[in-house]
Write a structure and sequence with these properties.
Belongs to the thioredoxin family. The protein contains five helices and five strands. By secondary structure, the protein is of the alpha/beta class. It has a five-stranded mixed beta sheet. The radius of gyration is 15 Å and the shape is globular.
């Protein structure tokens, strides 16, 4: 499956209406972004059940700011509408494949329960922050 371009108008709908979404925040002038682009495209062809999307940070500055993008490329992964991974920098193909395997294996019911407990002020570790035991550690 080819990658799709996301905009401020399509971002939330895409994240919420697909099981797994990988989003590459990039810019045309960015050398590391150009280096990562073929890796991302190859992964999109291998994993056709996953939505692979790109956000041009120059064209979508408000979206990049809302996503708190500090450097590019930044890869974000969402599962069931929740961000479960975020990493700045170029990832090699084997790391992207491993990331996808880990995302598929995430215990989403446990993660949602932890997030609900945290939101209710009852503790819990949250998800995707790298500081809990949910398996969604960044990096």
């Amino acid at each position: 499956m080819a990658t799709i371009e996301l905009t401020g108008d399509t971002f939330t709908e895409t994240i919420e209406n697909n099981d797994i979404v990988l989003v590459d925040f990039w810019a045309a002038w960015c050398g590391p972004c150009r280096q990562f682009a073929p890796v991302f495209e190859e992964a999109s062809n291998k994993h056709e059940d996953i939505v692979f999307a790109k956000v041009d940070t120059d064209a979508e500055q408000e979206l990049a700011a809302a996503a708190n993008i500090q450097s590019i490329p930044t890869l974000m992964a969402f599962r069931d509408g929740l961000m479960v991974f975020s990493n700045s920098g170029v990832l090699p193909a084997n790391a992207v494949d491993d990331l996808i395997r880990q995302i598929r294996e995430l215990p989403m019911d446990d993660i949602r329960a932890q997030m609900q407990a945290q939101a209710a002020g009852q503790g819990g570790g949250g998800c995707g922050c790298g500081g809990c035991n949910c398996g969604a550690n960044n990096g």
